[in-house]
Amino acid sequence: MQKVNEQIGHFFLGIVILTWGINFGVVKSAYQDMPPILFAAIRFTVSGILVFLLTFWREKGLWIRREDLGRVLVVGGLGLGFYQILWSLGLDITSASNSALILSTQPLLGTLYVDLAKKEPVGTQKYLGMLLAFGGVILVILKPTAQFRFSLDTLWGDLLTLMAGMCSAIFFSAWLKPLLKNYSPMRLMGYCMIIGSLILWLAALLLPRPIVWDQIGTKAWWSLGYAILFSGILGHIFWYEGIERIGITKTLVYIYFIPICAVLFNYFLMGERISIQQIIGGALILWGVRCSLHN
Question: What residues does each domain of the chain span?
Answer without folding.
Answer: 2-293
